[in-house]
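My main concern about presentation is that the manuscript never shows what a single data entry looks like. The format is easy to grasp once an entry is in front of the reader. For illustration, here is how one protein appears when written out as sequence plus structure tokens:
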Amino acid sequence: MVAAPELISSKSTRVAAARRLGKRNFRTKERLFLAEGPQAVREAAGHSADGQPTLVELFSTVEAAERYAEIIEAAQKAGARVHLADETVIADISTTVTPQGLVGVCRFLDTPFERILAARPRLVAVLAHVRDPGNAGTVLRCADAAGADAVVLTDASVDLYNPKSVRASVGSHFHLPVAVGVPVEQAVQGLKDAGVRIVAADGAGEDDLDDELDKGTMGGPTAWIFGNEAWGLPEETRALADAVVRVPIHGKAESLNLATAAAVCLYASARAQRRNAPRP
């Protein structure tokens, strides 16, 4: 059995400190963010970077602690401070309408862009001018699922640690390197210097994804640039790319949303790269 709640008041200094992380300026100052729900907390508990555990603190209801005892144990083994709290305290910290009883406080995860380049990536998603945090998190999840080596958020894109972004990634924040705040020109030039072909995804692109696959141009190291949800990529960003490619619409749909288009593009590259990979 789990002991009675330790934190019964939302006025606790620990609770207040965690609650403030819902705001970007406090996240940036403390270099900490919130991860909510069993999947995200489980991933955080098993993650470390540069010798430091990512999860530093965990708030849990008694019910959640009993249901997810293995997560509580993993958090304690990682050195995180675990606090039991009643549901009102968890609701006060949480940024969701229906909290799942677990809220973790995590160290920032972003990776220096230079380190990503040094690893010679073969598949990268670059988020340029992406403003919706849910979309950013979903594209990160798509990149993770497709086996991408890294994600880059430019300085014109949303905060990686926005709670909506963290929830939408469903734990993928903890799976692959992500660089943040990189000017798009620097991102493109760095990737080109590392031998990566730059492909801009745009519904008005001159080139068709099916044609690119047929021509065999997608099998090498590739970075996809994804633009703003409403107005796509500005001309100056399109001009930086080696190719501007559209996802073909074979039916009557007007267009694809950002996350769906990103999934199609990333999986197309992943498949082409696997075909080109040397056989054992």
Observations:
- The CA atoms of residues 127 and 226 lie 5 Å apart.
- The two ends are 51 Å apart (CA to CA).
- DSSP finds 13 helices and 13 strands in the chain.
